[in-house]
Amino acid sequence: MDARTKVEPEPRRRGRPAESDGLTGERILIAARVCFAESGYAGASTHMVAARVGLTTGALYHHFASKRDLYLAVFAEVEQLMIERFEKAAAPHTRFVDKLDAILDEILRLSRDEPTVTGFLQSLTADVGRHPELLEAIVPAFEQRDQMFSGLVEAGITSGELVEADREIVLDTVTTILVGLFAMNLGQLPSVQQHAVDGYKRLLRGALLKTKKR
After folding, report:
1. Domain residue spans of the chain
2. 161, burial (CB in 10 Å: exposed 0-12, middle 13-18, buried 19+)
3. Does domain 8-204 have CATH number 1.10.10.10?
4. pLDDT tens track for 126-156
């Protein structure tokens, strides 16, 4: 089951206007992602989103029953996009370190190509901290993300790069590194984000710290 099916937004209202189609819904999601990335959950409004798409607020409510419903839909879409890009980047590799390298590079591309995605993910931490009802709704959707990270660690154990006893330690470390690159909003500072990625890669290979010769 993917993140989109696990998040349970409120039921949509009955009745659909003439312009109500898949394309309109996708335009609303794109506009909402921009608004939530810029203003956060509290600062954004359905009126702001509707105006950006050229709809009335009433027309928007035919697609999404509430701001919460809209936020959860954006979250599901962003989460799915991130996971799919990470999995595609890692798939050609068999070793843990190479898979993680590829995902780190993909974070840089995602930050460059989809700034509203990284902006939304950065605001997510603050939003769920202030609005427990959002956190309660999205926590089940993190299972797919956890499965992907667990797959990375499993690849390392299979290749002999990691030992079974360190599974949980490495899993938490990988999660913190990858999620942290978004949460710290380094996408607005591309040179800093690039340096952080380069530093993580060198740490993985033991090439960052100078070893004292005996």
Report:
1. 8-204
2. middle
3. no
4. 898 899 889 889 888 888 889 999 999 999 9
